[in-house]
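REQUEST ID: PR-0412
SUBMITTED BY: lab tech R.K.
PRIORITY: routine
TASK: structure prediction, single protein chain
INPUT:
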Amino acid sequence: MLALILVLFLGIGAGLFAWNAWERLDEQQQRLAELEQRAGEAASADDLTGLREQLQSGERERNTEMTQAVEAIRSEFASYRSEVDGTLDQVLDELSREQDTDEREWLHAEAAYLLRLANQRLQLERDVEGAAALLRTADARLEEAQNPALTSVRRAIAAELSVLDGVPRVDRTGLYLALHAQQERLGGMPLSRELEEIPARSGLQEAPTGAWQQQLSRFGQELKDLVVIRQHDETLETLVTPEQEAYLRQSARLVLEQAQLALLQEEQALYEASLDKALTLIRHYYDTERSEVQAAIERLEELKRENIQPELPDISGSQQALAEFIERRFGSRGGRGDDA
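STATUS: complete
OUTPUT:
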């Protein structure tokens, strides 16, 4: 604004000077016209000679004044141009400094946005690696700003990155595939017959003698081979039907699918409860004497001990520090504007 006012005043001064020179030239033209008119009216040679000398003198004076006026205008214009060039250079320098400031402000705003995204990614999505990547990008933006006042903010970011590095990583893909593998294995494992077969034992220590006794003993031996007597201390349960077998296998599969869903949703309690239910089904209805069933039980117990919901740290310190820095910066600018 100051540059524009200066340019305006310089233009007005040059115009006034040119107008004054123009008036002086106009007066000379009028005098020359009067002399020419008088020369036309003069009758004697002496008068003509005097008028001619006056005309030549007036023309020389006019030329001199014209030359002085032109030189003065050139000098004023050169001075005016020099002042305008200086003012423009000053304005350009100020604009350049303001442009640099704006660039830093954009870097500060971008870093604040990235820090806010990092907090949201960690708290809402529990994405530790994504939050760490956003923190590193924000730190790179603050490094580009090259402002020593941001050292405390960058220190807070470094501390938060160190804490995130200590958070246990959960291999959700690996755990999900491990649960899927157990589903496939359980589909081919044998179910328990629930009732053990115990061969019948005769109460006689020695076989009876004689012809009919021998025949009876032989018949009893054959009958013993054909008939199986099951002995139980508890109330007998019915054998598993094909429909019940399909239901039990499907139940085990659904329980493991529920554990997979809990894994993806990071629900530790539901994950452990689902695996507990799966282990209960296997122990009650599968043939636990088989080595493959025992291996499946051991693997599910290992999966149950996995921590799928580690405790997450608080990384909002850097975001708050940068927000306070930006607020102080704009507050100081507002104070300077009020003083002006």
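NOTES: The CA atoms of residues 276 and 304 lie 8 Å apart.
REVIEWED BY: pending
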